[in-house]
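TEACHING EXERCISE
Course module: macromolecular assemblies
Task: Read the component lines below, then compare them to the predicted structure of the full complex.
Student: A.B.
Group: 4
Components provided:
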Amino acid sequence: MPQAFGWHDLANPHRFRAVAARVLPWLLAAAAGFLLTGLGLGLFVAPPDYLQGESVRIMYVHVPAAWLSLAGYAGMAGAALAGRIWRHPLADLTVRAIAPVGATFALVCLVSGSLWGRPTWGTWWVWDGRLTSMLVLFLLYLGVIALAHAFDDRLRGARAAGILAIVGVVNLPVIKYSVEWWNTLHQPASIRLSGSSIHPDMLEPLLLSATGFLLLFVSIVVMRLRALIAEQRREMRQRRRAALAG
Amino acid sequence: MAGKLAPRHQRLVLAGSAAFALVGAGLLALPALEDKGTFFYAPSDLVRKRPPAGERIRLGGLVKPGSVFRQDDGLTLAFVVTDGSQETHVRYTGLVPDLFREGQGVVATGRLLPDGRFQAEELLAKHDENYMPPEVAKSLRPTGSPAS
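Instructor-supplied answer key:
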């Protein structure tokens, strides 16, 4: 039956692999383009800050890493929810595909923030609301990864990891609003719906870099998902062969 | 039976009520966390909540312009931290972060003295959400905007 391409096709593992193979080179090329432009402008062309001096350039990595570790978590939790409700085969794999990538971005955010905090605040780390909730996000990612691998039965692992991923969503608004609910050492958001308090010469490279990191994040997740699908098919084939032999 | 839901819908309802319970628990926990989650007291909080003198706390606010006095030893500072409505006098001996300056945010760890002044042991600079090149900051200064 001839049918127009729809988003539902992507949910079919076979179709997904075909589409991913075609889209990936473009995704990666676009990610490289945006990252080179954004980071190039940010690290070499953008002006230093009037207070922070050159260390403001850490922002071009720190802020995109922070945004994407939050957005990635939301995406992972959404996939986990779909996996629990609709039992879709790709949903649980998507959770496993996102978790290590999100954890890496969260770690990059923590480490780059620490490197910025030392010259700016005078300390590598404080236990304020923003830094602590961000550390919790990183640990939640690690928990999801650990649970997904903690059972011999893949489905039980996916269920446990999925539930942790879903429960952990409460941490997202805590991170976002920590700087407003509590007095924190970390500054409040510079970019809001009402406008930005970052000078355009710095905001532009930041947004380009963030777009690049977003494309990179998506590319890695798609690549991981492809590998996980292939791995699952191989396992199923082996099990079938073992069943026939036995 | 009319009241029986398909398993998929059952799971949806279950997930929905679990989410509802979580959000509810979060909303209940937040006010309780408000005090514990706060990294520092503002000068107004010191007046309102009156933490006992001698207890190790953090004080945060803006360094009042014109209030910084450096003693002859070059290491001891006296300055005023303000949040716009209340002020606290602070004394501190030690190295000062690069960003410490009048009009900027600061977080001091230390103890409240019986006379209401604050003896700081550690001083951190707080950065605000404004990012701009030096030229822009300079041109803003006369009008007294963020860079003042």
